[in-house]
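Submission sheet (multi-component)
Chains listed below:
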Amino acid sequence: MIVVGYSADRFGTAALEQGITEAKRRSTNLLVINATKGDALADPRFAQAEEVHDVEDRLNQCGVEFELAQPIGADAADELLKAMEHDDAELLVVGIRHRSPVGKLLLGSVAQQVLLECPKPVLAVKPNEP
Amino acid sequence: MENLDWLIQGFGQAATPMNLLYAVIGVLLGTAVGVLPGIGPAMTVALLLPITYNVSPSAAFIMFAGIFYGGMYGGSTTSILLNTPGESSSVITAIEGNKMAKAGRAAQALATAAIGSFVAGAIGTLLLAAFAPVISRFAVTLGAPSYLAIMLLALVMVTAVLGSSKLRGAIALLLGLAIGIVGIDSLTGQPRATFGLPLLSDGIDIVVIAVAIFALGEALWVAAHLRRRPAEVIPVGRPWMSRHDFGRSWKPWLRGTAFGFPFGALPAGGAELPTFLSYVTEKKLSKHPEEFGHGAIEGVAGPEAANNASAAGTLVPMLSLGLPTNATAAVILAAFVSYGIQPGPTLFEKEPLLIWTLIASLFIGNFLLLVLNLPLAPLWAKLLRTPRPYLYAGILFFATLGALAVNVQWLDLALLLVFGLLGLMMRRFGLPVLPLIIGVILGPRIERQLRQSLQLGGGDWTSLFTEPVAIICYILIIVLLVTPLILRLFHRPEPDLVHASALEEHEEEQRVEKAGA
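Outcome: structure written.
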């Protein structure tokens, strides 16, 4: 199983595309996780109904067996690490972005945490420059 | 003419660089708290009350005025972009505003709301400057019985007319009056409800109560409901509107102002009723009735103007009679008291420069809001992404600091906690906060006027009914309390007649109440 850390932006989309490619290559299934802590009134990285619909369309179309989860209330990094604890989870795909030191200090970095803490391989992808 | 002179002097006082800085801070802070649902201008002013110990009265009131008007602006942004009204007064705006935003017209909705608020605020402030001194001059001639009756009328209206449940309003009012009783009786010197604690003999400071109910209660409530599915924020650029939108907006702006100001100026205040009336009127008068329910610009322009005009209106009873009719006015009044300024009809005589500076700063704040809000709208929308634990940690810090700063005694912190829990319970059981805070402020004053009247009348209760104004007020109170009962007796409410938008409003209101706003 490939786990994809999805966010509703181009970084998440890049991770999703790479996840699909990997799932096809390894002929395995896909778990797409779009988590939010849910402690702010608005979280632009959390996919709303329309975006969820788009993601499902894309996944249906690529023919890979998939599952889409949107857990609320837990830290996104913890949610991904928990999913990677499954025995059949073989690879985690995340999108990474530039973060200022202050930004990291205040809000932390999901990518950094999973890269350092996940015992299994993590694939970090960057979107093409717009 | 005399008033105009004073107003010009007020502008002179308000336009000094230092005071302008306070105006800008107030306006920015007000908009920010208005944008965030649950945190309103009342809470912000309550949290800032301790600064009144260090800052000159005019600077503090200039800032509070900015927060007061800013909160109105900010609330509309949230209504339009998030469909979660930031303030109860912008509930109606959400109906059409959010539909407009979803249809890709968020920029126009924000523009008509901002410009409409500016127009209504400017006209409302002008009317305030014209009427408040007149009413105040009339009010000075009133005796204690009339003043008592007017305050009772305000209490009844705030409790029974506003809000969805009379019983809940009455419970909240009773709590407020009970808190107001604590302390040494000014006439007989007996301690009342002090529980043998000497520290309580001075009464409970209004700052502690306001901070506890507004800030601590809300923080605890949010902590109990922290994790939620994030709402969808509609992305927006810089607000703008076309000539066509402008043509459709200016009449609703003026009509909304006409609805809002009188309702605000009544001793019951509140922006819910005029915004609703404005919405219904615009729907009726619109040349595009089919657009209503799908994002009609008139449905944003009218109610937004109405809520700002009513905000200006609520300052009329506050400045001319010392009667607070909304939560923010109540807390600002508490600030007057903490400066040793006695709110009441004599305010215009005793502190003319301060009052006119306040009015002038309303004009300035209103203008600043327009200038700041049009370009800053996308930034305000970003504010909604702030993780609430950070936000409320800050609020709790300032709440505690503020409560301690009042008298620097441990009892105030204990009281803060007790009343904070009370605030949480009130939100839990849907009790409105406004009657409580008004009860705390007006309760002791009502008591003083009552006993003064009775003393003057030699203990004769009929002396309460000797002045015509008093009699009119008592008749109004009876009418207000009895009419709904009679109406209910004679014809059962027919569900068919309830307007669809009225239902929607009710649901929206409940949602706001649940959110603890």
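Remark: Confidence is low (pLDDT under 50) at residues 500-517 of chain B.
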